[in-house]
Amino acid sequence: MQSKKFLSLLKNMSYTISSNLISLLISTFVVLIIPKLIGVEEYGYWQIYLFYGSYIVLLHLGWNDGIYLRYGGENYKKLDKRKFYSQFWSFFIFQFIVSLILLLVIHKYMETPNDIFIFTMLSIFLLIVNVRSFLHNILQATNLIKTYSISTILDRLVYVILISILLLTGNRDFKLLIIADLVGKSVSLLYAMYLCRDIVFGKFEDFYFDLIETVENIRVGISLMFANIASSLILGIVRFGIERVWSVAIFGKISLTLSVSNLLMVFVNATSLVIYPMLRRTNTEKLKDLYSLMRTLLIVPLIGVLIMYYPLKYVLSLWLPEYAESLNYMALIFPMILFESKTALLINTYLKTIRKERIILKVNIYTVCVSIIITMISTLILENLTVAMLSIGVLLAFRSIVAELLLSKIIKVNVVSDIYLEIFMSIIFIITSWYIKSIIGIFIYILFYFIYLLIKRKEIMYTYNFIKKLLKV
Predict the structure, then answer these.
(1) pLDDT per residue over 360-378, tens digit each?
(2) What percent of the chain has pLDDT over 90?
(3) Alpha carbons 263 and 252: distance in angstroms, whole number
(4) Degrees (nearest 5) of the Cα angle 56, 59, 62?
(5) What does the alpha-carbon distance between residue 401 and residue 264 come to, in Å, rounded to a whole number?
(6) Structure pTM?
(7) What are the Cα distances from residue 276, in Å, to 5, 137, 271?
(8) Average pLDDT over residues 194-222
(9) Which helix H or strand E contains 462, and what residues bound it?
(10) Taking the mean position of all CA atoms in its chain, how far away is CA 396?
(11) DSSP character at residue 246
């Protein structure tokens, strides 16, 4: 039974990795080409749109998250389509009203033309993305990962085609890039509606407002929503401090550095979508063994992936000389890949599976409080960009470590020695990449990585043999 579930996981992951390879290529294109062709300030405004867009979508009040949590592991064909039809249109009306209120507030209180444009587009962004998210959550919860992936890829494909046309025809206005992004998301929404047409296009007489179902979805999902808000604020507070203290151009440069460091997260986040429905169907007693297995599969390669920083930074500095100075900060934040991946793929997925979303919320709130203190010190008191950037990695490591220690107590696994090793490897990486800055630094880190592999050789061999055995079956 366990082998069947693991093979099912590998099959779904193959769909996800294939589709997200396309997403990764598109994301790489966006990260590398747009800042090359548009001005630093224009890129800064584009990043402001993306920055606030990551928060504005959270105005669904947990409705979407509740559906994802409550119906995770269900069979799509067995869903009550009348109930979901009514929920979909109730949610659409709710988001339309929220979007309209936001639009009115923007035009009443904002004065700068660029700000008015950006936030007007964000009010449209809110409606499109949240309604699409409603449908995407249903597809994810019912393990229709392949179908969900196609819808997501469609968004990015349309977007990259449009911005390619814009850039090739000499259009460098960030406003057109924002419109292209909204068109891509709109096409993806229409496709998602087609995929879930038996939910979206029901009979009018079948519609009913189910207050109990709505309240229950919001009740279940609101903890995860606040956890997501707090999670976004951990980095958001630091970025907001940078935007307030330094220029739009500096904000854009720093955002590019974060975007490059986050490219790998495309794969990690997608994989977590595959794992959640599987874990929901897994016997509680098996969760402990699966955790240790997946932890080794994830962490050992990721610590090795940090080596990619050295050639990546060199190539990017040649390609984007205007951003060369800010790319130095990648040395301080690159280890975030390790801790963010572990949080997204393992820790949060497990906590959602065992319905401990409140732990995610509490840990994120604690980390936000620390983020506020560090940001005030680094940006307002010290006005030190290096300290502000270093704090990003420290905050994400803090969040990951605290959450994993709490989870380990629940599922009864010992991760303390592993955490110490990961902190040690992260410190070695920062020292070799920030202070040494030469080929010697690469070899020092590789040497320590080999020592790490020797220490972890038993776990690595166990994981290898386990997967080999399953593939033979």
Answers:
(1) 888 988 998 998 998 889 8
(2) 20
(3) 16
(4) 135
(5) 20
(6) 0.73
(7) 12, 12, 9
(8) 85
(9) helix 457-472
(10) 13
(11) S
Domain spans of the chain? 22-209, 228-472
End-to-end CA distance of the chain: 12
Query: Which amino acid does the sequence have at 39?
Result: G
Q: Is 90 exceeded by the pLDDT of residue 466?
A: no
The per-residue pLDDT of the chain, averaged, comes to 82
DSSP state, residue 377? I
- Of 60, 69, 47, whose CA–CA distance to 133 is shortest? 60
Phi, psi of 209 (to 5 degrees): -85, 110
The closest of 249, 247, 243 to 388, measured between CA atoms, is 243
How many angstroms separate the Cα of 107 from the Cα of each of 96, 115, 175, 234, 349? 17, 10, 17, 29, 40
**Token pair recorded at residue 108:** 């009443």
Kindly state the DSSP code that residue 281 receives in the 8-state scheme: T
pLDDT of residue 96: 95
Q: Count of alpha carbons within 13 Å of 342, Cβ hemisphere only?
A: 30
Q: Which residue has the tokens 């609101």?
A: 222
Burial of 212 (0-12, 13-18, 19+ CB in 10 A): exposed
CB 48 within 8 A of CB 179: no
Per-residue pLDDT for 230 more than 70? yes
Cα separation of 124 and 232, whole Å? 21
CA distance 88 to 459: 46
Candidates 55, 16, 233, 232; CA nearest to 140 is 16
Look at residue 223 and give its three-state secondary structure: helix
Across 251-287, b (16+ Cβ under 10 Å) vs e yields bbbbbbbbbbbbbbbbbbbbbbbbbbbbbbebeeeeb
Question: pLDDT by residue (tens digit) across 266-280?
Answer: 666 656 555 655 666
Instruction: Dump the DSSP string for 36-72.
Output: HHS-HHHHHHHHHHHHHHHHHTTTTTTHHHHHHHHST
- Write out pLDDT tens, residues 185-198: 999 999 999 988 88
pLDDT of residue 277: 58
Residue 2 neighbours by CB under 8 Å, 6+ apart: 286
Q: How far is CA 400 from CA 244, 364, 388, 397, 403, in A?
A: 27, 10, 19, 5, 5
83 burial level (CB within 10 Å; 0-12, 13-18, 19+) = middle
Q: How far is CA 370 from CA 55, 108, 113, in A?
A: 19, 34, 35
Q: Are 41 and 110 in contact (CB under 8 A)?
A: no
